[in-house]
Amino acid sequence: MWRLAWRNLWRNRTRTAITMTAITFSLALMLISQGINEYSYEQMLGSADKAAGGSVLVNAAGYWNSRGSELVLDDGAAVVATVRSALPKATVLPRVIIQGLLSSSHGNQGLEVHGIDPAAEDSFRNIKRYLAEGDFLDGEQKQPLVLGRGIADDLGLQLGDRVVLTATDPDGEMVRALFRLSGVLDSGSRSVDDAAAYTTLAAAQQAVSLGDRLTQVGVVLPAAASPDDAKRALLAAFGAKASALEVLTWAEAMPEIIALIEMDSKMGEGMLFAIFIIVVFGIANTLLMAVMERIRELGLLSALGMTPQRIGALVLAETVLLALVSITLAVGIALAAHAALQVYGIDMAAFSEGEVEMSGVIVENLVIHSTIVPAKWLGAIGAVFALVVLAALYPAWRATRVNPTEAMRTYA
Amino acid sequence: MNTPQPTQPAPSVQADKPALIEVRGVSRVYKQGLVEVHALRGVDLDIGAGEFTALVGPSGSGKSTLLNVIGALDAPTAGTVRIGGELATGRSRAAGANFRLHNVGFVFQAYNLLPVFSAFENAEYTLMLQGVPRAERKAIVMPLLERVGLADMANRRPHELSGGQQQRIAVVRAIAPRPRLVLADEPTANLDSHTSGELIGLMQELNAEHGITFVFASHDEHLMERARRVVHLRDGLVERDEVR
After folding, report:
1. What ipTM does the predicted assembly reach?
2. Which chain A residue is nearest to residue B114, measuring alpha carbons?
3. What's the CA gap between B56 and B78, in Å, rounded?
4. Is A87 near chain B, with CB under 8 Å?
5. Chain-wide mean pLDDT for chain B?
6. Partners of A92 in the β-ladder
7. The pTM is what?
8. What residue spans of A170-253 are helical by DSSP H?
């Protein structure tokens, strides 16, 4: 049966080639775009911890959602020491985060000022590369402030100009602090240019009378380390004090990133699936035509003693072979495209100005490569195979209904 | 439509042959729109094992229909057909196919070889459907191809063979599984008289050598002349039954 099926497949080469092309290219497209999407998601996930502020964040309990100025880490030094001892390979980033109003002679702007350890923070976020003017908190200024280009322009600030930050201290008192613009960041991304405001840890602590208290400790893990494992280790290390703290992995801090990826992934898959469904109708039509064209021959097979079940199985066998050849070609094309993308990539910088931002995450690597997730590839291949065979069910059923005398008389 | 009363001779069988085919009261009515066409009107006929019988008659006499009913290709509207005592009628599609596979060989007017198969593959096809192993199939088919003078063309596709050669392959396909009977519907209609004569001779020889029962539906006078029994049909009934 398989021999007959194989030869039948090639008796109308043009039709078989067209059907195969439809299956091959739609599956190849599915696999290639899946590879590109997976790579993009990896990039997003790789950059998401930067957007969150670290692989794991330690705040006072309730801070992440409320951002209340009273929610601070009272013994900042002890928290930092505990983190360093629990995760010796991690980079620890102490921060003071101030929600406040920045005022100049030109106007006011509400924003979040980050008091940071400049060298440590830059080693993680690589902020310094966006520096367009001045310095990044390593100059002579005592109350330095680095702002994004958009904020500096809105407030009409030049390097060295004074600005006043009005905020609330941990006791709920309104405080005002003077800063001088020491640097301007220009990334091309609105999330940086319209929001970034950095000062030193000491200047921030002084501005809101924090002493040595901190708002947050960011923890940056080595590449292969699991944030969940690190969180467990930290909770164990904090012991009884953990109840006063909030330890979040970046995924818990920014669940919208995961949701976005899931939604994007499902939408992409749905779209490709819809395209393939359309292709399947075309395939079903072609297979039905192939059956109707051979009705006399199927009648002959029936006359010779082939049972209806075997005749139906013959049509299905032809389809299975068609699907297997097409899938093999599609996988070959997709692997070749994957290999080419690994070597050359697609430089998205050519299509965008400045940084590419997705859901608040700056995607730093603008050269798109491809990542194969074997389970997803196998899923797509299995779905395509099943759909193609499904498309053959009706033609196969029609083939089983062939009446040998009618077929041979009518189609003589 | 008025249905004439059946008037036909009693089913006859050559005295020295046991009845292989028993046709009893077979009618076949086709509906063409609102019109009923009575192709067979209650045919009774016995054909003995090893006979070389021709069903003859004008177009529309019912000879092809009778052949199809005997071969379980078509279901009669009424009546029964037994082959070797086994009911050939009233079977499901699958059971009918199985019955044909193991009991009946067919030779058609238009040869009906599978175009994607070689002469050898066509000839062995029914054996393959029966599940006969490859080596055994070859051992059966090659001598038959030699017998019909086509062994050296075994690898040719049907379009590379003449009409006569294709029909000889069809005959080999029909007899290879050693069926109880071979039914041939106008087997010589597409052949010239010389090739037709050769094919009839070949079938006669195979009939004599292997004892396979041959039943033809034909207009071919050569075939009628060489048949040992000629059953004349007219208007769906046996008009005359000549045993020579």
Report:
1. 0.85
2. A297
3. 22
4. no
5. 87
6. A219
7. 0.68
8. 190-193, 201-207, 227-238, 250-253
